[in-house]
Amino acid sequence: MTTSIAILGLGAIGTVMAAHWRGLEVYCVPKQAANSHSDEARQPCNVQRRLQLSEATRSAFSDSAFGPGTSSHASELNQEPHSSPQSELELELPCWDGKQPIDWLVVTTKAAHTLTALQTLHQHSEALNKVQRILLLQNGMGQQQAVQQWLQQQNLTMELWLGTSTDGAFLMPDKDNPVRSYCYAGLGEVLVGRALQTPGQELLAVNTPLPPHLKFVPDIQQRLINKLAVNIVINPLTALYQCLNGELVSNTAYHQHFLALANEVLEASKLLEWQLPDDFVQRVTLVAQKTAANRSSTLQDIIAGRPTELAYILGYLLIQVSQLPEEQQPSIPETRKLAEQLQGKGLTVWPQ
What we know:
5-stranded mixed sheet, Rossmann fold, 7-stranded mixed sheet, alpha/beta
């Protein structure tokens, strides 16, 4: 039986995942359906996306991906079967009506919108009763706990899964084209695991069939923390200096700030029991170097005039530190000063 997936938040990562799942039964949860109580918002529709492939990502879409059995629920337009990997994919996804049973509801919205979108979707049509598993595939932390608590309060018993992606994708500016286009610039991996596993749940999770491009890991919470710690260093600084990731290492002044912040994050992590590696500073430096030509997701948001996720990145660290007994709270002056500087630029650092 074909795996059924609904994607809530068809932005850069959502579009990348839809491309990897073209052979499955894939739907889009339209933005208006997750933010409106009207029946009109749930009328039948199709959502189109264009995904441009780089040299690094073209190999992920081999000839076999276009062979017989590809579902029309996520089709490639103007593509011949068994053709060579293309430089561009055009996707068309039908909208999920909330009535069709779904194996996976994959949430790739901004962190701040997660709970509201799920609440609205459920309050209108109880669509979540049709969902077997929810996968939160997002930056930042804090929203996962909020969703888990809400699901328990609503007596919703579907499995909650968490994920982290190292795929690189960004919005392509093309005002003349009504179809939103993204560039799939870097082929990474998507690690997933079940939230709050008991020994029995962990065994079930290991044996759960996963859609393509997802890899199960038993320590997803630690993987999320590891990525969060890296983002706490890179994202706020690229927002402050309006620079590419690599400039945080190549620019002497930026690099000094980078090292100071990384060392404070490592210091705080020990008190928060985040279990970061002792060579964290070297590792985050390597990430900045390997992604030297990239704009962080936070800088992309700023350029596009969108709200950032700093409240679920830098803000999450500050909140966790504030919850420690006062005598145990680390001195992190550079981190606190950075938060003030970003707030001064009109960016939200503290969760609303």
